[in-house]
Amino acid sequence: MIGLNLPAACCGESSTHKEKISIRSFMRSLCVFRSIFLPAAALALILIPVNSHSKEINWSKAEASRLTLFYPGVTSWEFLTSEDHRLGGREIKQGRKECRHCHMSKEGELDLKADEIAAGTVKMKRSHNPFEPEPLPGRKGVITAKVQAAYDADYLYIRAEWESKGAGWNQKKSPSAIPDRASIQLNKSDLYFRKYGCFIACHNDLNTMPSTPSKKEVESTPFYKALGRDDVRLYAFYAKTSWNEFKSEKELSKKLKEGGRIDLRSVELGEKASTPYNGWIFDDRRWEDGAAPEASGEWAGGRYTAVFKIRLKTKDPYDISVSDGEAVSAGMAIHEDGAAKRKHYVSFPFTIGLGTDADVKAIKVSD
Ligand code: HEC
Fold first, then answer.
1. Ligand 1, residues 10, 109, 112: which to mutate, most atoms within 8 A of Cβ?
2. How many CB atoms lie within 10 A of CB 18?
């Protein structure tokens, strides 16, 4: 097991004097209730044996970590920062505790009602809105992926492997066929991304989320009209206040300078082929046309394998640049078994380190 030390930040620790007593006593009962006392907690990233799949990297040499992914339903940034999320809401708004401080046990087990969310049987505490208004039959709440990383002089390689029926891979060609998919979001600088990962870009007004505007409304709005689009996609909360309310140019360019853009890589797994995508998330989610995406995937022996190949140094402002000695934050999503849009599994954020300590340590390989 990889011993991953997180900062002691759960029970009994609070940040402001004013809130000290109430938070502390609330946290104490909460911790007993949810059994989440984490003095120096371990995350669910556990060493397990590895097989070698890639031609380029000898993956048997890379440390393997177990990454937990869960079904979030319509869990959005708005829910997460609201009173519906109780203490979680208050802590996240101030950028204090991370998801895993409250939702991972010290043994690294997920403490979140993911099975109930997937089954559509759990509601938000205050609003009584369902976490999943359209449950998919038989969908389980949690899956795990084995994650490894390696780097050479030019590239960072991130490999994920998970058990699957391979429904997307094995399906027949048809216009309605939905491929399976693995995606990874990467960012080096944003504190909120580091703590809350993909959730900073998931909103109630996105396409297929509960408060999405009508297609008509979207396509008649200048920003989307210019793009010829009728769907609202992922956006970072610091780039837009809502689907149609942008931050000022000044704020946006400041945020870009600070590294607020999130790099997004994805690989589609459908009809016995893998198709890579390279994109980004900021005030919208876009795929890059010109950039050569590099990712591959396959399904064999009841398991999918996806390998993302990320250039370390790039002049493309839409891609992340990483150097030896640095760590990047990442969030992973997996679309399985005909799941489209929001009906995927997602991870809490984790770090990948190149020659530095991180949740997933990339091994250095020669070219
Ligand atoms: C300060 C602790 C804290 C943090 C940080 C936190 N949560 Fe929570 N979360 C809670 C508590 C407590 C509940 C239960 C609320 C209730 O039912 O009263 C909860 C409930 C939830 C639920 C509803 C399902 C369930 O198990 O009750 C989801 C989904 C969720 N949190 C996701 C997240 C995600 C994603 C993050 C990070 C972006 C996060 N939480 C961060 C404390 C936290």
1. 112
2. 9
pLDDT of residue 290: 67
Separation of alpha carbons 275 and 134, rounded Å? 29
Ranges 32-41, 210-219, 338-347: which has the least confidence: 32-41
Q: What structural domains does the chain harbor?
A: 17-364 (2.60.40.1190)
Over residues 25-52, the mean pLDDT reads: 38
88 CB under 6 A from ligand 1?
A: yes
Average pLDDT over residues 54-66: 85
Please choose from 24, 85, 346 the residue to mutate so as to test ligand 1's pocket, defined by most ligand atoms within 8 A of CB.
Answer: 85
Mean pLDDT of all residues belonging to the chain = 87
Nearest CA to ligand 1 atom 42: 88
User: pLDDT per residue over 34-44, tens digit each?
Assistant: 433 333 334 44
Which tens digit of pLDDT belongs to each residue from 61-111? 999 999 999 999 999 999 999 999 999 999 999 999 999 999 999 888 999
pLDDT tens-place string over residues 287-305: 998 667 799 999 999 999 9
Structure tokens at 128: 């009584």
Give the HSE-up count for residue 92: Cα atoms under 13 Å, Cβ half-sphere. Answer: 26
If one residue of 34, 102, 129, 350 were mutated to test the ligand 1 pocket, choosing by the most ligand atoms within 8 A of its CB, it would be 102
CA of 100 to the centre of ligand 1 (A): 9
**Ligand 1 pocket, 112 CB below 6 A?**
yes
* 122 CA closest ligand 1 atom index: 24
In the block, which residue shows the tokens 């070219």? 367
- Tokens at 240, concatenated: 């837009």
Measured in degrees and rounded to the nearest 5, phi and psi for residue 88 equal -55, -45
What is the β-pairing status of strands 142-151 and 360-364?
parallel
User: Does the beta carbon of 194 lie inside 6 Å of ligand 1?
Assistant: no
Answer whether 126 contacts ligand 1 (Cβ < 6 A).
no
Q: pTM for the whole thing? A: 0.87
CB of 117 within 8 A of CB of 72? yes
DSSP string, 115-162: HHHHHT--B-TTT--BS-SSPPTT--SEEEEEEEEEE-SSEEEEEEEE
